[in-house]
Every structure is written in C-alpha cells, then in structure tokens.
DNA sequence: AAAACAGGCAACCGCTGGCCC
DNA sequence: TGGGCCAGCGGTTGCCTGTTT
C-alpha cells in the first residue's frame, strides 16, 4: 500500500511540492517566527509568507496543537481529567468546546486522551464509553479517585510560588483561565457546563453535582493542580474544588441494577492489573 | 537480542458552515 | 442567490516508542 503521507493531490502537486508528515525543527522555527512577528492571519498566506512548503491547514494545526506559546503539554492533571469526563457527559464528542474549558489544552489532545485512555477503560468494562453505564462507573469509581488524588495534591503540592508546570510560558495563568473561570463556574448565562445542558435546560452536574455549592469550596483563590498551583484573586477553577468524598461514592440515579451492575463489573475488572487508578489515569508526580 | 505487539499521539482527511463577491 | 474560498471541527490513520515474548 502506498504511504498516504507521501501522496498528494493533483492540485497540490501542480504548483509547489507541498511537504507533508512530521514537522522539522526548521519548519517550526519558520512558522513560529512568522506568526510572532505578523500574527496568524490567513493560513494559506501564512504558509506562503513564512516560506513553508506546507498548506495552510497543516500550518494551522501545527501552530494550534504544538507551537502556540500557551499550549500546555504533558499529562493531564486529575482536575483536567475530571473536567473532561464531566464535559463529555454533557456535550459528547465536542472536543473543541471541551477544550475551551481546559486552557492550554487542544481539542486534539483531549480527543486523543478520550480515545486512548477513557475508551480503553470502557472496553475493559465491556461497556460503551458513551453509555449511562459508563457514566455510572465514572461517577462511582473513577471520579472519587481523581478527587482523592486532587486532595492529595492539595495537601502536598500547594505552593503558590513554586509553579512546576512544564509549559515554558506558564509564569502566570494564561488569559484563557480568566474566561474559563468566569464562564465555567460563575457564569449564569447558560455557558456553564455544570449548570446547563446542550438544550439550554438546567440540570445538576453529572459527576460533580454539588461543585457549585459552598461546602465544597476550599479557598476559592487557591488553584490546586498536580503540577502547578496558583493563588490569585478572582481566579477559580475546578481544581479549586475539593468536594466531600462520600458524595462521590453515591451511585446517583442510575438504573444499573437492571442489566449490568457497574459495581459488579468493577469487581470483575479489579482482578485485572490494569484496573489500578494510578496506572489508568497516568498519575505521575 | 530481536521480533511482535500495543499504546500514544501527531498529522492528515473530509465534511460543514461562514464569509465574500 | 449561488459559487468559491477558507477556517474549524471530528474522525481516522499511521508512525514512533516502549513493552512483552
């Protein structure tokens, strides 16, 4: 089979030999330097003016997913994982929408996380990753562990002056954090994924039903994260919430007893060495 | 040590919708 | 109004790397 990475359309080959496949350091540098000097603009123009033999789409993808300065890379924190689970339960595969609430994370990264980690665990349980049963499993077993991890981090890693985020540009929360915090957790306009459904109706959060209520807040100015910790006025994030554990062991309003009990499934898979939350969610200090 | 396998992720593909002429 | 161009999105592919046999 011909390698599609080396094929190109007739249109592309007609004018200039367009490059495809992995980006080189030189290409990255060209693109970065151009955008930093001239802004993004039209991507086809960017590609041309930057001297790249790439199409605009490729440049856009490379910039947004990899080169953009506020892009955060590395393992997703427990907070981010929990938020992804929560938002996906609301919106489904609306990756770009979900990504809006995880500053610095790209839709591609979230999509990959979902497909490689979450769906893998769903397969382990023999359930559809978009099914109610799966949500029950998440709510009953995974979310508590993520929250537990968050609590551990909160007690050991909260050090506002010691930001270990591996992002070189993480000296302060990126701008989008501000919009995230207001949109996500203080906004009552219907943008809040924890308060509204896609149809605009109101409902409680699937995995974090009471996050918006007072008792679950720790210091709202403290942002706890496995790899970073901010303390800043008017800056709230999911990571700042430490809900009471026992509420997350509640099975919710599911009817899982009817055909496939998630708890039983959980017991089954605990025989599997894969079912170790630290491994499953790739918690790395 | 090497081959086979599996997982993770960067990049591409194709579709859709918005904008402009 | 319709066609062309473009950006953005979700789905998919295939390469790379680590692990297992």
Automatic annotation (TrEMBL):
Residue span, HTH myb-type domain: 15-67, 68-122
GO terms, molecular function: DNA-binding transcription factor activity; sequence-specific DNA binding
Region (Disordered): 153-204
Cellular component terms (Gene Ontology): nucleus
Source taxon at top rank: Eukaryota
Compositional bias ranges of the Polar residues kind: 177-200
InterPro entries linked to this entry: EOBI/EOBII-like_plant, Homeodomain-like_sf, Myb_dom, SANT/Myb
Subcellular location: Nucleus
Residue stretches in coiled coil: none
SMART domains in the record: SANT
Listed Low complexity bias regions: 153-176
Pfam families with a match to the protein in the record: Myb_DNA-binding (PF00249)
Major place of residence: nucleus
Keyword tags: DNA-binding, Nucleus, Repeat, Transcription, Transcription regulation
Protein name (record): Transcription factor MYB62-like
Gene: LOC108816402
């Amino acid at each position: 089979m011909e390698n599609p990475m080396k094929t190109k359309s007739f249109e592309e080959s007609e004018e200039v030999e367009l490059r495809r496949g992995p980006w080189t350091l030189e290409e990255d540098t060209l693109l970065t330097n151009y955008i930093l000097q001239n802004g993004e603009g039209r991507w086809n123009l960017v590609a041309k003016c930057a001297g790249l033999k790439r199409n605009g789409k490729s440049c856009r993808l490379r910039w947004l997913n990899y080169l953009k300065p506020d892009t955060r890379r590395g393992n997703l924190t427990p907070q981010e994982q929990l938020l992804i689970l929560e938002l996906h339960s609301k919106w489904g595969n609306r990756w770009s929408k979900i990504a809006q609430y995880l500053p610095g994370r790209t839709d591609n990264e979230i999509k990959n996380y979902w497909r490689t980690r979450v769906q893998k665990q769903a397969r382990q349980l023999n359930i559809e990753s978009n099914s109610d049963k799966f949500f029950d499993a998440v709510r009953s077993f995974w979310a508590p562990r993520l929250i537990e991890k968050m609590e551990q981090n909160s007690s050991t890693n909260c050090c506002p002056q010691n930001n270990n985020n591996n992002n070189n540009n993480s000296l302060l929360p990126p701008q989008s954090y501000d919009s995230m915090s207001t949109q996500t957790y203080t906004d009552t306009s219907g943008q809040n994924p924890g308060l509204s459904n896609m149809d605009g109706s109101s409902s409680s959060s699937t995995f974090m039903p009471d996050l918006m209520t007072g008792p679950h807040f720790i210091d709202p100015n403290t942002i706890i994260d496995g790899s970073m910790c901010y303390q800043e006025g008017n800056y709230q994030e999911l990571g700042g919430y430490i809900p009471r554990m026992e509420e997350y062991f509640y099975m919710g309003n599911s009817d899982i007893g009817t055909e496939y009990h998630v708890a039983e499934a959980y017991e089954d898979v605990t025989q599997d060495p894969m079912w170790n939350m630290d491994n499953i969610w790739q918690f790395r200090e």
